[in-house]
Every structure is written in structure tokens, then in C-alpha cells.
From TrEMBL:
Domain Phage shock protein PspC N-terminal: 3-60
Regions crossing the membrane: 34-58
Bilayer topology annotation: Single-pass membrane protein
Higher taxonomy: Bacteria, Bacillati, Bacillota, Bacilli, Lactobacillales
Subcellular localization: Cell membrane
Record-given protein name: PspC domain-containing protein
Keyword terms of this UniProt record: Cell membrane, Membrane, Transmembrane, Transmembrane helix
Amino acid sequence: MNKKITKSKNNRVLTGTLAGIAEYFGISPTTARVIYVIASIFLIGAPVLLYILLMILVPNAKNEPKTAEPVDGNTWNDF
């Protein structure tokens, strides 16, 4: 199994880097973001530089064509 770290294409907040790392390690993206914020507080902003570096180096996930979902004729019932 050849697993690579890529930016998440589904769970993006800023660039998808933290979510991609979380998907690679099999943890929740929210957990990865909380760990990042705590590390940024205790390490006096050093993870910000690491994030910028990872944002540049981690490749985007390969795009798959999106398929349209069928829509029911009665779509006005949510107003």
C-alpha cells in the first residue's frame, strides 16, 4: 500500500493541509486542528511557519469528476 499525504479536497478550512494530514494518520480533522492550535500557543507560533511550509510542499489531491445528483421537482418546500 503506497499511501501519500495530500491536501484534503472535501474537508477544507483554509487550504486542506491539516485535514489531509489527519486523513493520512486516520484521525479526525478537528482533532488535528485542535492539536495545531494548542501547539501554536505553547510553541509561540513556530507551527505557523511549519504550516506555511507544508501548505507549499504538500500536493493537492487528484481531482475526480463530480457527478450531479438528481433533484426532486418540489424544491420550494425549504422556504
